[in-house]
Design brief:
- The chain has 87 residues and is of the alpha+beta class.
- The chain has one domain.
- Helix content is 17%, strand content 44%.
- The protein has one helix and five strands; from the N terminus they run ββββαβ.
- The chain has a five-stranded antiparallel sheet, covered by helices on one side.
- The protein starts with 8 loop residues before the first strand and ends with a strand.
Length: 87
């Protein structure tokens, strides 16, 4: 294996609910064989991810994605980002 090889997994995000008044975005994220539900409380910078199985794999990359894109996300929208790991 080359030292330049970086594993990648595509994570797929679907926004299911959004409330600017409550400062919250809800959705689901899928990567490889994993699937989670999340709540992003963007005013507090708080991310909740369930279930706990595999949560450590997605928590940081999902948080960075949401911080970067939260104002562009819309309910019913499908998005994706790359996780620098082999899940």
């Amino acid at each position: 294996m080359s030292s330049k090889y970086l594993p990648e997994t595509i994570a797929y995000v679907r926004i299911t609910k959004q409330s600017w008044q409550l400062g919250k975005i809800e959705g689901e994220v899928k990567a490889a064989a994993y699937e989670w539900q999340f709540q992003w409380h963007f005013r507090q910078g708080q991310l909740l991810v369930q279930p706990s199985l595999g949560r450590a794999l997605i928590f940081e990359p999902l948080g960075r994605f949401l911080e970067r894109c939260d104002y562009q996300l819309e309910p019913g929208g499908d998005y994706q980002f790359t996780v620098r790991a082999d899940l």
